């Protein structure tokens, strides 16, 4: 006599096993919080870098000589004499 197998539920076969299923809830929550914290730190770092670059550009513009400012201007000042 052949053994009869019980059919495996399709729900179990269709649903892949995820890392969240293998880890406990508390550890998953801690990892998500850490991910969010690192993301926020990265955003703060990027904003600080942008602000530093803006300030550096402002200082550079402030320290330009009159000749440099005239050379950057696209107008031809000789035509206004």
Question: Topology of this protein?
Answer:
Layout: H1 10-14, H2 19-22, H3 25-62, H4 66-72
Commentary on this structure:
With 81 residues, the chain is mainly α. It has a domain of 38 residues. The chain is built from four helices and no strands. The longest helix is centred in the middle third of the chain and has 38 residues. The model has no long low-confidence stretch (mean pLDDT 81).
**Biggest sheet, in brief?**
none
Distance from N terminus to C terminus (CA atoms, Å) equals 112 Å
Q: How many β-strands, per DSSP? A: 0
Average pLDDT taken over every residue: 81
Coarse morphology: elongated
Summarize the helix and strand pattern as letters: HHHH
Uncertain residue ranges: none
Question: Strand-residue fraction?
Answer: under 5%
Helix content: 55-70%
The value of Rg in angstroms is 32 Å
Q: What structural class do helix, strand and pairing data support?
A: mainly alpha
Number of helices: 4
List its traits:
81 residues, mainly alpha, 4 helices
Brief account:
By secondary structure, this protein is mainly alpha-helical.
């Amino acid at each position: 006599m052949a053994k009869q197998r019980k059919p495996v539920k399709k729900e179990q076969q269709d649903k892949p096993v995820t890392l969240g299923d293998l880890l406990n809830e508390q550890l998953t929550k801690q990892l998500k919080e850490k991910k969010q914290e690192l993301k926020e730190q990265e955003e703060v770092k990027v904003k600080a870098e942008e602000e530093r670059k803006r300030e550096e550009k402002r200082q550079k513009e402030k320290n330009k000589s009159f000749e440099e400012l005239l050379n950057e201007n696209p107008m031809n000042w000789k035509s206004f004499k």
